Every structure is written in structure tokens, then in C-alpha cells.
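Budget justification note: compute hours in this period were largely spent on complex prediction jobs such as the one shown. Inputs:
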Amino acid sequence: MTSFQTDPFEKYLYSSAFYIQIANCYRPIMKWIANGEPEQREVIRKLLLNSWHQATPNFLNSNLSGMGSVNATLIQENSLLKYSRLTQMLADIAPKIIDEFIDLVSEHANNAMTFEDFFNIWIETCDKRYFEFIHSEELIDCISELINFSLKVSTGSIKAKDHTNE
Amino acid sequence: MNEDIKKSNIEAEIDAFREKYGCLAENFLNLKIKQDWHTANEICFKHEGIRIRKFLGSRNQSPPVLIVYSHVNYPYVIDLTAQQSLVCRLIESGHKVFLVEWGLVNDKARMRDLSVYVHDYLDNSIDFILQQYNVDKVDLIGICQGGTFSLCYASLHPEKIRSLVTIVTPVDFQAGENIIWKWSRKVDFTQLEQRPVNIPGEMITLLFQSLRPFEEIKRNIRLIQNSESINKLKSTALVDQWVFECPDQPGKAFAQFMHQFYQENKLVRGGLKLGEHVVNLLNIECPVLNLYATADHLVPPESACALKYHISQDLYTEISYDGGHIGLMIGDKAHRTILPQMAEWLINNQKYCK
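Corresponding output:
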């Protein structure tokens, strides 16, 4: 269902992709800020959203959904629904991050911003919003349901196995 | 003109980054990451599932110290390289170092009660050391969950413990921004306790990976930008490999730990029972040194520091480390300052509490 990142090299790979994706947004965003064209904000939003979708959800989603992997054969409809809810919740945090990021970098209209500063603002914004997300009751409910469901499937099968062995 | 310069700058920066990533990939493929102990050692005791590992190289008269590590990760992180080895710091300061290992998590382990680990196995290990070295008491170093186990044990058998060091140890399981408590609050551990299944280590790995992904990315980017440093890559990759290798968790003991310690917070609220044994931290009689990390996202400082409110004040000393959970075991600064202080504290206690 999901490929889990359990090799350190994959972490370096997705970190690198994350960096290059946002680096590709640097120039158009700096140009947009310098030109002062508020009506183009939507274009910038789309650019960042595209960058996010290219580089981010895969690793966040596979890590979080892996939390319910007590039992590897979670193919029931019920569990698929929970996985898709989690995926949707992750997708929902992107616009908030992007809007906050655009507001923050726009404050630098009068002074040139290095890519390092630009990248730091991006990752700090992602980090802050993600922190709020993982502490939210909505996510806690979703993760708990996933784990409880997975435990139920697993303990059910072990009960059957123990019964057979008796 | 300025725009052209910026344009060429960012493109050059991306190209340079790609090149560095290529360099990291090449160096990584050539690295031989081997999970092995840095310090020579031997297994000196085996009992049911557990083993005691004795690290070699200490003087004959050195006092024994037993390290109790968490179930949640493999313990080789205490002895990765000469620079990143708690074991080496202890041997250098004149200790004989032992480690209790919890053993394989197999079908037999899934039914094992938490009290077997925290009480019986620790008791067997400590008795072995006391008899083997003809001493009355032993010094304990408990790390993370192993620190919690050590506190429980020291409260049940104060007569066997001369001093106790707790490192990044949860005490109040609901204090601070405790994400593990929040995420486990609504999980039904009763069903797991009644019909235990072992919990795959991969699930624990993914839990840890889910907590601070952007912090990880920042660190990985720094690593890529310094990819020509083979030593840095090697030490980072060793730790990363360790992070990715959580062992399976014995079902029943895991469920009991999550239920009693996290959900009911019984270590500080009272009423904690391990089998027939009632744990009361006020029964601890030895000096306790509590090392905690100010930026610990797994064991918030508030959780670790709560210890001072639950044992006798005159027994308690604490040292804070300005860093994260793992940093206290492998960080350069920890090895330069905090761990030598810990070793000195142990030596001083050995002099005065014979």
C-alpha cells in the first residue's frame, strides 16, 4: 500500500528533493515581490503548492500512515477510508503553510533576501504548522483509530491462532 | 543586471547542491556502515532471554556500573565510535561497564509481563554482578525507558543500588509537550494486554520519523552541503541507521507500559504495580543524578525534571544539556562536558557511599 522510508539514504534523497523544489521557486517569488503585483499572488500560491506536492506529501504520508502498520494486511475498506482521511488532512495543511510563507517573505520587499534566508523561512513555516498539526485533536483521533483498528485485526488473528494451538 | 546576478546565483547554488548530493550518494555507497560495538566486549551472563555484556579494557579494581537501556531502540548507540561512546567515557574514568540486553522478541516474549523485565530480569542481572565482583551494591545508569525501569528497580531494591544516573528518562509521562502521550491517549491497550501481539519495530521507527520531519530535512541538507567530510557522513549515517532499526516490542509488556506509565501516569500519581511489587519512588535511598535535554522532543524536560518532586530532595542532582534526546548520548558537547561530569559524580559517590 505504501512504501515506508526505513533506509537513511532515502531520507537524504527526499531532503534533497525538498531543497531543490523550493530553490526552483526562489527566483520567481523574488521577482514577484520586487515587482509588487498583488494580483499575481495566486500564481505564486500555485507554484508553491506544486513544489509542496512534488516533494513533501510522500514522506509525510508514508511515515504517518505507517503508524497503523501493526498488521501489514490492512486492506479492508474501513482502513482504506482512514488512510484517505489522513492523506486529506495532510493535504489540507499545505495551503496554510503556503499563505503564511508568502506573507512572511513579502515583508522583505525592500531588502534582498538570500536563498538561505528564503529556505530557512520556508522550512521554519513548514515545521511550525506541522507541529500544530501533529498535536491537533483531529490528527490524534485519526492516528488512534488507525492504531486501534490495526490492533483489533492483529489481536483477533492472534486469538484465532492461540485457539488453534490449544 | 542585479536580476541576472541573482538568477545565476540561485542556479549555481542548485547546481552546486546537486553536485554535493552526488558526492554524498557516492560516499554513502562506499561506506561500510556496520552496526557493531566499538569497544571489545564479551557476554558474561545469560538467563532466559536476557544477556549481560561486559565491556573490556577497564582496570581490575574498577567498580562495576550496569547500564540499563530502553526496549525501544538497540543499545549499540552507547558505543558507536571512540568519540561517540558512553562506554569509553566510563572506562576512561575508571569504571567496569556492563550492559543488560533484553534479548529477542519472539513468540514467547509476547506474553511476558512487564514486571519480568523491570523486576525479575534486572534483579537477576544485578545479583550476578554483585556475586561476581563480591560487592554489596552496584551503580546503575538508566537511559530513556531504561531509566524509568531503573527508577522502579531502585525503589524496590534500595539495598542493592549505590547510585543511580538517569539519562533522558521520562518520569511524569504527561508533562510538557509530550507527543507520545497525546498520540497514545486514545489507543486501546487493554485489548493488546489481553491478547498480546508483538509490535513491529518498523511501526516504532515510523512513529519517531513522523514527529519532526522538517528538523530532519534541515539536518540532512547540512549533511549534503558538507558531503566531502567522510567522517561526518559516517557518524551521521551510523546514527541514522540506528534510528531506523527499532526492535520489535514484546506485546504484553509494551501494552502494560503504555497503559500504566503513559495513560495512567502511575509512576508519579501512585499506585504503580509491577506484578506483586508496588513502586514508590520515595523508597529510593541512593543519590540520583538526572541528566535531561532541554530540546528533547521525545522526553520533554518537564517530564524528566519531575523526578525532583518525587524523591528525597537531598538525594537529587540534575544537569541539563542544551540539545536533543539522542544528542545527550552522541553529541560532541555532551562527550566533552556532560558525560565526564557524570563519570566524576559516580566516582565521588563511590568514594563516599562505600
